[in-house]
Queue: 2 jobs
Job 1
Amino acid sequence: MIDARAELRPDMDRFIAEISELVEWMAQATGIVIAEPKIISDNQPTPGDPLILRLFDAACKATGASHRCMASGAGHDTAWMARISRAAMIFVACREGRSHTPDEWAENDDIALGAAVLLHTVVELDAELQKPIQETM
């Protein structure tokens, strides 16, 4: 079983083609019969809302949090919420980069920093979304 994710569909299509070729080559080279590959889930990546991502960036700079923009194809709630609302995610650093496993561990300082980024973003998002209302009054 392979859990593969890509931000861009052409990258995923290329990976699937290459892995299929590799499996075929391995079967021929070893004489092993390999079952036909079967895709059991194919989640499209959901890009984060540009405004929220811009505010995350500003919040990280304001709080001193290191950050990078990354895609998640994991089917988090955000993928569903993005269909009806602005949405994006904050990922908190985990020991050895391991999350969603029994070994997942985040330090309290990293959790607090993630919460500070979230708070800063919510305050700024509220101010940003109030602008059109204030301008029409």
Job 2
Amino acid sequence: MKMKKYTTIFFFLTIVQLSFGQNTILWKVSDTINNKTSIIVGTFHQFGNSFIDSIPEIKENLYNSELAIFESIDNKDELQKTINNREESKELKKRLKKIDYLRLLELSKNWKVDIHKLKPIELRWKLEQEFLRIKCKTVMKNDEWDHFDNYLQHLAEEKNIKILGLETHKEQLVFINKDANFPNWKEERKRISYLLDQFNRDDFNKNKCNLVRKYRNYDLDYKLNEDCKQGVLIKERNDNWMKILPQLLKENNCFIAVGLFHLYNKCGLLEQLKEEGFLIESIELKPASNSVYNK
């Protein structure tokens, strides 16, 4: 009877630990055979450097690593050059309402890419990124860096930590278009128009900032026991990365920075690495440490 009671208590504590253990964006990955300890951070690409600076555990683990791994380490200017070298399309002005086109011209006046050379899905993604930065305030006024991953790469380079990219920016563009089944202007026009309207509203849809709020407070559920619902953009890329990550983790103390959703579900990197025999543990973070965002 006593043994049954202890078993019940142990089971309860395990469930409690699992339910509260995911309130983090940092995970420890241990190879107990080769005595290597690595860290994975699930990034929110559009957050500025002040958010990273408010979490000392991120820099500490990055600086202790032997190899820093990112989705891509390509020069962003090269991607912009690739897009700007495309032939200009007349579709944008033709497809959008006049008011939407004028709004877009104003919004994009400081962009480094020509909006007339973006594909429909690329333009929508760019607008969604700008929406997060501007309306959801993921970037603060004093931030020098407006991209989570790029700032971490900069920090790694400053400390002469070896860096590695899992794919190129050009490959990422292919995945984005492939995931959306290469949509045309007719399919994307309404979404683009809606976003442009939201930029000009004080009463914009606050629900679009829900994930931002959850991320700031580490209020996350990685749904590690659920199947993946996303295909090309998450699952296919995860599967590609898993062809090289295990060996790197066996040979180095790594710091891996990838988009948050690459850690979710059964097809996420956390569960796939667990299946490969790595020990996966969450690193507790206190939301108070990023209180600059909660004022």
